[in-house]
Amino acid sequence: MKKLLSTVACGIVAMTFGQAAFADPDNNNLTVEGMAISTDAKAMAGGPLDQLFSGWRFRASETQSLQMDDFDNPSFVFVEDGEALYDKVDGSEGKACSSCHEDVAEFKDLRPTLPRWNEAKGKLYSMEQYINDCRVDRMGAEKWKWTGTNMTAMTSLISLQSRGMPISVATDGPVADILSKGKEIYYTRVGQLDMSCANCHEDNFGNMIRADHLSQGQTNGFPTYRLKNAKMNSIHARFKGCMKNIRAKPFKPGGAEFQALELYVASRGNGLAVESPSVRN
Amino acid sequence: MRSIAIAAIGAAFFATAANAAEVAPDSVAFGTDGIVAASLTGAAGDPANGKSVFVNRKLGNCLACHVNSDANEHSFHGEIGPSLDGAASRWNEAQLRGILVNSKMTFEDTMMPSFYRLVNGERTMDKFAGKTILTAAQLEDVLAYLQTLK
């Protein structure tokens, strides 16, 4: 019996191996508006992945091409909403974002570093929190919902300023504990289907899961326009969707768990170019 | 006429007996290497219904991960697990039942879900908590279908 099992197991290994070659990401190159954007990167030594690939490399060519021209990219409708919101006075102080940050291009180094430790607040900060702090403390306006349309319009506009720059979140110092919490979540099997993020995005990237070509689940393209729901999707909304698919109770968007996961997943993609706002299915 | 009546009574009796004999998820008896010898319902499954459970995305959803040429009328077969073509020539009934009931008893740490187990991953959604993915009858039906994949 044992022998039979191991013979079969060998067969499985051989098959998986055979598939791995066939199931690589494609070799297409991404240029956006004539600018070449690298969609792979060498991973840091000692990490779980050898080679990093953007999710773009796993999408069908029709979906890929939507991201190569800002005119075709449906995200830009939302980026325009973000531009309008950027200049819109809101709240008791009579201010807009542009009252303090005249040109949104000044945020061009921001996206690759987030989430990061906010020394003044003594906690990990995502872009959404910086935006809401400005709204509440400086504008006297209401907070935006983490995954809401105003918020994703704004995070899309701000992330766009860093397009092409390599993700480089800090993993040491005060965030080290949060990073390991995120890692624990990444490898914990959850839900009735009993799977971890790693089952799909580390062990099986490149393989088809029914009609979906599994990517490494990188976050360099976020916020991303999804053909599935025709809107911009935040990182936390994507995490929530993946957890629901395996019949697990998602953590709260904007909560400590998803933030820790956001940091850990970003760190797995350190070196990949920011593609936001990207297009996925 | 008489014998038909007796047969009918016999069938009815067996159906009741089968229900009573249904093995609860937490009392399934596993043998060596995760095999499960006895039918969970006490009866043989229905292969035709088994195929519908197999392809149904809310039930078996087996095509998410496996190629199966016998279901080629459905597009998009996953490639996470091995092809199930010829599965019944590689595995006997008790082995296949074991793989379906709790795949982890046969393949350590496998990604394949366990279809007849009460406690699965952490944070299981309330509406699925304490429930099995398939019922005993659905599982026996899928098993009967797998046995046709020679």
Explained architecture:
The complex is a heterodimer of chains A (281) and B (150). By secondary structure, chain A is α+β, with helices and mostly antiparallel strands. In chain A, helix 3 crosses helix 6 and helix 7 (176-187) crosses helix 10. Helix content of chain A is 39%, strand content 11%. Chain A is built from 10 helices and 11 strands. In chain A, strands 10-9-11 form a 3-stranded mixed β-sheet. In chain A, strands 1-2 form a two-stranded antiparallel sheet. Chain A has a domain at 81-160: Orthogonal Bundle (Cytochrome Bc1 Complex, Chain D, domain 2), CATH 1.10.760.10. Chain B has one domain (25-146): Cytochrome Bc1 Complex, Chain D, domain 2 (Orthogonal Bundle). Helices cover 37% and strands 0% of the residues of chain B. Chain B is built from 6 helices and no strands. The radius of gyration of chain B is 16 Å and the shape is globular. Chains A and B meet through helix 1 and strand 7 of A and loops of B.
Itemize the secondary structure elements and their pairings.
The complex is a heterodimer of chains A (about 280) and B (about 150).
Chain A: H1 2-22, E1 30-32, E2 35-37, E3 40-42, E4 51-53, H2 61-66, H3 75-87, H4 97-100, E5 116-118, E6 123-125, H5 127-138, H6 149-160, H7 176-187, H8 197-201, E7 208-209, E8 212-213, E9 224-226, E10 231-233, H9 235-245, H10 256-268, E11 278-280
Parallel strand pairs in A: 9-11
Antiparallel strand pairs in A: 1-2, 3-4, 5-6, 7-8, 9-10
Chain B: H1 2-20, H2 47-55, H3 87-90, H4 93-101, H5 103-106, H6 136-146
Helix pairs in contact in B: 2-6, 4-6
